[in-house]
């Protein structure tokens, strides 16, 4: 059933930045489809946010599984007829501090790239026909400042000492996807951007991180709601552009 209300889908919405992104979008009056690898996790998330008065619907979506992607896209098509916002939030990381590039295994690369790159491309492809039916489609890819080749190449940059090859390279590849897809869709109403949430107190970021989760979700939410004159094909953190 078609609706005039904005519809957003957030992958990995059951915890951390994904959960908070779903919450903040719901607080803006948007219908949020909370996607998680298991239906029970998605339902638990939806129940939690519905208890806060938000319009949230659960869907099972393991982003690495073609059957899940197809079923989730069909669910959105059948119930809403469009998708206005896709937040590619789901991702995995490796040991960000104690792994040498020469010791990074093929298995590790395939695992990290499988979720952080290949699955994002596949999820986006599955939902693109529905995003094209939106009056203002928005795609937000959750990247990381650790994907910046410019900053990694600068020995004086704040991330120079953090070299986790599999994770960093996957985010650099994700950024490349953002650039290429934005160029492909430049004559449409869809905008595509990469978001660096910051170093956030999540399971991956640890309690050592300086940012709280609500602030970590802010960049994704802002990019999801940009207007016609907003950025496209850019790498953003809290309103500021980062170098690729």
TrEMBL record:
Per UniProt, what is one GO molecular function of this protein?
oxidoreductase activity, acting on the CH-OH group of donors, NAD or NADP as acceptor
Q: Which domain of life is it from?
A: Bacteria
Q: Does the keyword NADP apply?
A: yes
Q: Name one Pfam family in it.
A: adh_short
For this UniProt record, the keywords arranged alphabetically read as follows:
NADP, Oxidoreductase
Keyword Oxidoreductase present in the record's keywords: the answer is: yes
Membrane-crossing residue ranges in chain numbering: none
**Similarity field:** Belongs to the short-chain dehydrogenases/reductases (SDR) family.
- Put simply, this protein is called Short-chain dehydrogenase
Q: Which organism is it from?
A: Granulicella rosea
């Amino acid at each position: 059933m078609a609706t005039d209300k904005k519809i957003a889908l957030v992958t990995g919405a059951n915890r951390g930045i994904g959960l908070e992104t779903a919450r903040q979008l719901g607080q803006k009056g948007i219908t949020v489809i909370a996607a998680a690898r298991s239906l029970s996790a998605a339902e638990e998330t939806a129940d939690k946010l519905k208890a806060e008065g938000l319009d949230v619907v659960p869907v099972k979506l393991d982003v690495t599984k073609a059957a899940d992607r197809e079923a989730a896209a069909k669910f959105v098509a059948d119930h809403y007829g469009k998708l206005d916002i896709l937040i590619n939030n789901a991702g995995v990381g490796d040991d960000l501090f104690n792994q040498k590039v020469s010791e990074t295994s093929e298995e590790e690369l395939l695992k990290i790239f499988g979720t952080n790159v290949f699955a994002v491309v596949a999820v986006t492809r599955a939902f693109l026909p529905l995003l094209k039916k939106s009056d203002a489609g928005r795609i937000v890819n959750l990247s990381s400042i650790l994907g910046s080749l410019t900053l990694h190449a600068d020995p004086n940059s704040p991330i120079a000492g953090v070299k986790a090859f599999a994770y960093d390279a996957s985010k650099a590849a994700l950024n490349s996807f953002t650039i290429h897809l934005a160029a492909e869709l430049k004559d449409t109403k869809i905008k595509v951007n990469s978001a660096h949430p910051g170093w956030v107190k999540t399971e991956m970021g640890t309690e050592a991180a300086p940012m709280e989760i609500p602030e970590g979700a802010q960049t994704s939410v802002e990019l999801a709601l940009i207007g016609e004159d907003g950025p496209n094909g850019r790498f953003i953190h809290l309103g500021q552009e980062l170098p690729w």
